[in-house]
Amino acid sequence: MTNKLINNSFFNSRITTENTTAKERWFGYLLGPAGALLLNAVLATYLNVYYTDVLGLTSLWGGTFLIVFPIISKILDAIANLIMGYVIDRTKSKQGKARPWILLSAPLLTITGILLFAIPTANTTVQAIWIMISYNLFYSCAFTIYNMSHNLMVPLSTRDASQRGKLSVFNQTTTVMMSGILVALIFPMVIMPAIGIDQKLWITVMSTLSIVVLPLTLLEYYFTKERVTEEGGDTKEEKIPYRKQIKAVFSNKYMVITYIYFFIYTFGSLIKNISLPYFCNYVLGTYNDGVTQTMLSAIGGIPMGIGIFLVWPLAKKFGKRNITLIGFILYAFGSAICWMFPTSMVIVLIGQFIKNIGGLPCTYIFMALFADTLDDVEWRSGFRCDGFAMSCYSLIACILGGIATGIFNGMINAAGYVKPYTNGLGELIAVQTPQVNSVITFAFVGLEVITGIILAALLLFLNVEKGLPEKQAEIKARLENKS
Fold first, then answer.
1. How far is CA 155 from the centre of its chain?
2. CB within 10 Å: which end of the chain, N or C, has fewer?
3. Does the CA dihedral 17-22-25-26 come out positive or negative?
């Protein structure tokens, strides 16, 4: 994508105002990202089901294929995140540094999303090669390009803390809606029973979903604007050496605290998400009853809806850091209630409701805090390194995805987990020992008690909001002096 192309007026943002607008929030940050985020959420939950239950690849290469290839792919994905961060930091155009890559990702997401499922009917070797290529084209190429640039839009949109916070809420609302409503409720209740294990129906549904991503991602591109990038005007931007960026990022105490925070929170959340069906199948409910998991998801969705209206007014009044800290105290308290009474549906639902209320600030305003930290890095170092900082952020999520899965599987295997089986009478036997159920319970609710307490304590040191308006004014004055 050349500068000449992306500087063409046809590609200009439809947002021209100095301040963020309602149109920008609704189209650029709520509706626009919905396609890509929904596709990613569906893939995270059901792509492996397609490989195992529809294509029947569990025994491929002696059963090692579905274990080895995702791990190797995650390594490639991690490398791609670092490269993409480097590229974004060196992108200079009229459209900004991140937005041009959102434009490029739109057709790539659609094409690679279709290729993930349009696997030819051939021998298993051909299918394995197709899967490896399509998987890495999507995750290491298309989605990495989109996700890196998409996550930078809040920090690059404006320096105004209030406007930035509103954009963060709208941005995170889309994530919650896609994963918490459509994927957790609609897909398991409506879509999955309809398509079953029919490969043609899977291809039709997933291809349709991939096609919808294209216009929505274009909507995100056209209704976002990089005001922070534009502050530099037409001055020649210095190419900051990678070593200098590393020093600027990791010598900043607030950025280090932010990364530690994100590492702990992501690890706990991943373990919880992986253990959710096991907890519903063995501890709280019965195997695949369809009701238990739906109820937990619904209870989780109610606070998320309330949070849209409550979180930002509270954050403005008490501070983003402070309201998030208080939230994690509730987060740990709610999880502790569930941990003490894991087999009581009523008590677990009450505990989950309290926990999810506590998790609202983290869910909706974390990116605003991250943006404040990027400004602090710029104030101290004299330059921005958004791409590198975001690549480190994305790298944590990428690596932890594989690690969390491995740790959880190791925990239940060590406790003596037994897969469900059918006895001689045709009855499904799906019962675990108390030791296994104890491990599953710890993974689902116990670990989040610990992470909630640690995160609340860690946030005491994340005082990045103090003096931020003055720092932002100084940054703006520096840029004006350069132009």
1. 16
2. C
3. negative
Q: Which amino acid is at 50?
A: Y
Side chain identity, residue 253: K
Mean of the per-residue pLDDT values for the chain?
85
Q: How far apart are CA 374 and CA 387, in angstroms?
A: 11
Three-state DSSP at 98 gives coil
Tell which residue, 353, 337, 362, 342, has the closest CA to residue 268. Answer: 362
SS3 content of the chain, % helix, strand, coil (to 5): 80, 0, 20
> Is pLDDT larger for residue 286 or for residue 132?
132
In Å, what is the CA distance from 16 to each residue of 21, 157, 174? 10, 12, 24
The 10 Å Cβ neighbour count of residue 406 is: 12
Q: Please tell me what DSSP assigns to residue 426.
A: S
| 94 Cβ contact list (under 8 Å, min separation 6) | 6, 7, 12
Burial 273-307 (b: 16+ CB within 10 A, else e): bbbbbbbbbbbbbeeeeeebbebbbebbbebbeeb
Quote the CA–CA distance of 410 and 385 in Å, as a whole number: 38
Question: What are the helix and strand counts (H, E) for the chain?
Answer: 22, 2
Task: Supply the pLDDT for residue 380.
Answer: 93
